[in-house]
Fold each of these.
Amino acid sequence: MLRRILDRVAPHFEEEGRLSALFPVYEAIDTALFTPGHVTGGASHVRDGLDLKRLMLTVWFAAWIPVFVGSYIVGFQANEAMQVAGLASTDNWRAIVLDALINYDHTSMWDNFLHGLAYFIPLYVVVFLVGIAFEVWFASKRGHEINEGFFVTSILFTLTLPPGTPLWMAAVGIAFGVVIGKEVFGGVGKNFLNPALTGRAFLYFAYPAQMSGDAVWVAVDGFTRATPLGNAAIGEAYGIDFWQAFFGNMAGSFGETSTPAILVAAVILLVTRVASWRIMLGCVLGLVGAAWLFNMIPSSNPMFTMTPAWHLVLGGFAFGAVFMATDPVSAAMTDTGRLVYGILIGVMCVLIRVVNPAFPEGMMLAILFGNLFAPLIDHFVTQSNIKRRIARG
C-alpha cells in the first residue's frame, strides 16, 4: 500500500510536476523505505557492491553505541557535579523535567542515562534539522537527491560536542560543516574534508572560550572540571586511573569517553567491511610509535612522559580513528595509502598533543591534516604501482 501511494504521488514531484522543487525530499523518503528503482545514468566506476545508503546507515547505527554509553557517562558526571557543588535538582532544568516525568533519582543508573540523553537529544535534533535544511536546499538547487551521508555527519558532529554546548552554537557549527565543508565543493563524494570535523574545528577556532578549557566538559552551570588531557598538559595528575579512563568515567564529549563502546562499534564496522582496518591500524601504529619516541626525549614538558597506553584512551583518539579517519570520501583510497594515511594521523595527533600544550587534544586537527594529504598519498602509491608493473615488463 505504501509503495502504491508513493508511486501515485511521484508524478507531482518529477520534472514537469507542480512540486518538482521538492523532488529531493520525495526521493529521500522513497529510497529510505525502498530499494531505488533506477540505475546510474552515466558511466560509473564501482569500488565494491555496497551502496551508499547501506554504508551510511551502518555507520549511523554503530554510532548509537557511543551515544547510549556516552549519555550515561554525561548524566553520571552531571549528577556527581551537582552533588559536589551542592546544587539541588531544581537548579537544573533537565533534572526538573525528568523529576516531573519519572520521579528523578540521581543515584539510579537508568535515571543517569536519561539525564545524559536530555543533553544529547536537544543538540542532535537542532543539528539534524539545521543540517538537513541546508542539504535539502542544495539538493533542490542542483536537482539531485538528498544523500544519506548527512545521517552520519549529523550524529558524528553531535558526538564531538561538549554536553553543555549552546544550541545556537551547534546550529552554527553544523551549518558551516555542511556548507563550507561539503556543499561548496559539490556535495557527497566531492568534498576533501570531513564535514563533521570541519564544523567542529570552526567552532573551536571561532568560539575558543566556549569550546575549550575546563568550563564546558561537565554539563552543570556553576561547576567546572578539566579533561584528563587538560590536566596532563599543565603537569597535574590525570584525576583518574587508567581503567576509569578506559571505561569512560571522565569528563569529555559525548562520543569520546568510553573506549569499550567505541571498540564494539569498530567491530561492527569492520565485520560489515564498512570501515578500513588499515586506517585504524595505521592510526594506532602512528600514535604508539610517536608517543614512544617522545617518551625517550628528556623534557620539562609533562606531555613528553605520557605513555602510548594513556594516549590511546584519553581524548578523542579512539573515536576519531574509528569513525572520522575512516570516512570513505575524505580518506585515502588505495590499500597502502590507507595504512600510510592512518600512520600520518596517529603521528600528527601525538605531535599536536605533546609539542603544543595549548591544544592538548590533537585528533581533530590530525584527521583534517590527513584529509588534505590523502589525495597526494594515493597519487604516490598509484605511481609507485605503475612503475613497478612497468619494470616487471
Amino acid sequence: MLQSQLFPKTKKESPKDAVSINHKLLVRAGFIDQLMAGSWTLLPLGWRVINKIIGIIREEMNAIGGQELLMPLMHPKEIWNETGRWESAKEVMYQLTDARKKEFALSFTHEEIVMDLLRKHVNSYNDLPVAMYHFSTKFRNELRPTGGILRGREFLMKDLYSAHQTEEDMNDYYEKVSDAYIKIFNRIGFDSYITEAAGGVFTENRTREFQVVAEAGEDTIYIKKDTKKALNKEVFEGNLDDYEEKRSIEVGNIFPFGDKKYSEKMNVTYQDRDGQSKLVYFASYGIGVTRLLGTAVEVFHDERGIIWPKSIAPYQVHLIELKKERNEEIKKKAEEIYDKLQNAGVEILWDDREVMAGEKFADADLIGIPVRLVVSEKSGDKIEWKERNSDKTELLQLDEVIERMCTREK
C-alpha cells in the first residue's frame, strides 16, 4: 500500500474529549473515527487489524469444532419474551417499533436466536453436540460509553454457542473453549488471567472472564500470587495477602447455562437413546473483537505511538524513502524493495509521500508497524532495519531483509 493513497491521513493532535490512550492514538493514527458517542467507524488500517484478530479467533474456534454462521441483528419481541429477557434486559437492549406497531430488539446477544435454531433442527442425540459461532455487530444501551473503543453502544463481537446431551459433556467443552481463549490471547500477545466473576444480565451463576491487566480497565481483579487465576472484585472474598490487586480489561467471558435458563423456558429438547425427551445443555462464549483492538493499544504503546504485536499489525513493514529533491535512484531502490517484499508475501506500507523526514519518522512511530525500513543516500546500497519496540538500527542487504521477514512470519 502506498501511504500517499492511504485514507485518512494522520493527525497531529488528539481529539479534545479523548482521555484513554486507545482513543487518542487510534484516532490520531487513522485507525478509527467516531460517528457519535459509542459508535465508531473502522478505517482501513483499523479494519486490517480487526481482520487479523478475526483470523486468529476463527482458527481456534474451528480447531475445537465450531461451525461459523451469521445470525440476524433484528429480533422479534416474542422470542425474547420466551425467556423473560424483553423485560429483565430492558436497560441494555435497544427496543423499537415499526410502522405496523410490531416490536423488535437490536441484538445485544444471540442466546434466544440460537435456541430457536436448535429446537428447529435438533431432534435426537445423534444431532448433539453442536457448536456454532459468528462475528456480529452487537448493540448495548451503554449510558456512558467511555474508554475509546473499549466500551461502545455498537461493537463487533465473536459469540460461540454449544449444545450438549449432558452436563458432563457441556463442562468438558467449556474447558476446551477456555483453553482456546487462552491460546487466542497468547497469539495476540496478551498476558491474560482466567477470572471468576458474576454473570450480570446473562446468568445468575458465576462465570469465567478473561482479563488483561491495563490501567485503563474498568474492572478490578485480585490475582492469586504466582498463578494465572484471579477473582473479580464483585465476587472477591479472601485474604488480600494472598492476592495482587490490578486494574484490568475484560476481553472474553464464557457462560455455562445448563438445561434450565434457556432450554426449559424455550422447550429445546432431544430424544435420547431410549426415546426419552431430554432438555439440551447449553453454554455461550464471547470475545469482544473491537475491544481487543483498543486493549492492544492500551497494552502496547509508548510516548511516540502504538507498538503493534506482529500477529495483528496492519502491515508487517513500513518502508520509508528519504531523498533530497528528486533522487530517482532512491525512488528506484524503494520500488525494488516494495515489489520484492510484496512478491515474497510480506505486507508492506510504503511512505512515498513528499514530506520531511521528521514527519515520516513520527508517523511511522505513531502507526506502530513492527519493522521500519529506510532507504536513503546515507544507507547506500543497503537498507536500514529498525524494529518498532527497539532503538537499535542495522544495515542489511535486500536479500537479508527478505529472509529475515520470511523467518519472522513463520
Amino acid sequence: MKAIIYCRVSTNKETQETSLKRQEEELIQLAKQYQFEIDSIIKEKASGYDVERDGILQLLEKIKDKQIHAVLIQDETRIGRGNAKIAILHGIIKENIKLYSISHNGELQLSESDSMVLKIVSMVEEYQRKLHNVKIKRGMKRAVLHGYKPEENLKNLGEASGRKKIEVPIEEIVRLRKNGLIFAEIAATLRGFGYNISKATVHRRYQEYIESQET
C-alpha cells in the first residue's frame, strides 16, 4: 500500500528546520513499521490556519490517486489548526484515505468534538447535493411546462453513449430564456439532458447571441 508523508512547521526559524527534518525521519520509520510504500514526501513551512498552502493543496490532489491509501503525519495539528484543520480532514477522509500519526503510533484517533463536527459537515454536504439535484429537476419541470420538448429539441440525446456533449444548443438557451428561466435554471436543465454546461457559459453564449442579433 502506498502512503504520502506530510510534514509542516509554522516558521522559517532554524529550530523549526530541525523539527521538519525530525518529522520526516520519524514518519519514514512509521511507514516502515506499517509496511507502507512511500509515494512522496511533502514538506512545507506555513501557518496551520492557512488553507492556501502549496503543500496541502498538493496533498489533496495526490490523494485522488486510487493507489494512495494513507497519509502519515506527526499529529493532527500538522494538517492544520482551527477551521482549516476540519476542512482539510474532511477532504482527506472523504477520499477514504487513512491517517496515521506518530502521536498515536498508528491510525489517527480523532477527538470526540472533531468527529462530531466532521459528521455535521458530511451531513450538510449531502443535503447540498440533494438540493442541487432538486434544482435540476425543478428546472427541467419548468422547461417542460413552458413548452420545452426534449424528445424534439435534443434529437441526438443518447448517441455516443458515455461521452458528454460539448456543443451548446443556443436555440434552446434562447427558447428557455424567453420562457422566463434564469441562467442557473437553464444550465441545470441542459445538464439534466446531458449537456456539460455551466451557468457562466449559458450567460456568455446568450449575450453573444443577443449581440449578434443587434449587429
Amino acid sequence: MAVYSMTGYASAVAGVAAAASEKDRVSDPGSTASGAGPGATSGLLAEARSVNGRFLDLTVKLPEELRGLEPAIRDLVQASVKRGKVEVRLALPRETESGWPQPSPEQLSRLAYLQDAVSSWLPKAAPLSTNEALHWCARGATGGAPADEGALAVVRECIAGLKQARQREGARLVASLTERTAKLRSLAQQAVPMVPAAVQRQQQRFLDRWAEALAATDAASSVPREALQERALNEAAAYAIRIDVAEELTRLAAHLDEIDRLLAAGGELGKRLDFLIQELHREANTLGSKSSALELTAISVEMKVLIEQMREQVQNLE
C-alpha cells in the first residue's frame, strides 16, 4: 500500500473542451449540434489543498450557485482522505462573473416558445426581460442537474490530483525516514562494542575508589578482608548494571525494525509511527543519561538529532 503525506495541492478546470465546442457552435448559427448552451460549469475552477492535522478537518468554500453540492463534496473528500486539514474551493470563471453571456439561437428559440406557451395560458403574465433571458440562457435549458454533475466531476478530478500529490510527497517522506533509520542503526552498531569496555572501565574505577575509601577509614582492620572484597564486587556489579546500556540499544533496534516494517507495508501509519518515534527518543535519552563515556554521549546526541528530524517528518504522514 502507498504511504500518503498530509501535505498536497491540486487544481482542475471544468468544461474546457465543452466550452470550445460551444464557441464553435455559436459562431455557426446553422449548426445542428445539440446542447443546452454554455454549461454553468464551463471554466469552473476547483482547488484542493491540505496540510497536516491530527484528524480530518474539512473546509468547503463554494459560490452561492453551488452551495447545495457541499454534502456531496464532503462525501467525495472523506472517501479519499483520512487525516489532515483539507480545504476545497470552487470558483466560477471570471468570464461568467464579469463578461457577457453568449446565448445560442437554439436557447433563444426555446425561451420564445416557452414564453408563448405561458402567455397562452396566463395572458397577464409579464414577458421575459433581457436580464431574465440572459440568466436562463446562462443556466442552460436543462436545469441545474447537469451543471451540478459537471461541478462534481471537476471536484473528483481535483481530489484525485490531490491524492496523487499526497502520495508523491509520502514517497519522499518514506525515503527520508528510511535513510534516517539506516543512520540510527549505524550509530547503534558503533555503540555496541563500546558498551562492555565502558562498563569495565567504570567498574574498575569504582573498585579503585572503594579501595581508597577503605584505606582512608582504616575499615580493613575491623572487617575481614574477604567480606570487604565480596561487598566491593557486589557493589561494582550493581553499578555496572546501572550504567549498562545494552538493553536500550536492543530496544532501539527493535523499534527501528518496526518502523521499517510499517514503512514497507504502507497505509495509514502516521499515528503508530508517532508513538514509535517517542519510544526512540526515550531510548536515546536513556542512553545519554546512563552513558559513562564521551563516545557514547556523542552517539546519543547524534541519535536525538536524527530522531527529532524523523518526528517532524512523521507529523506529515497520514
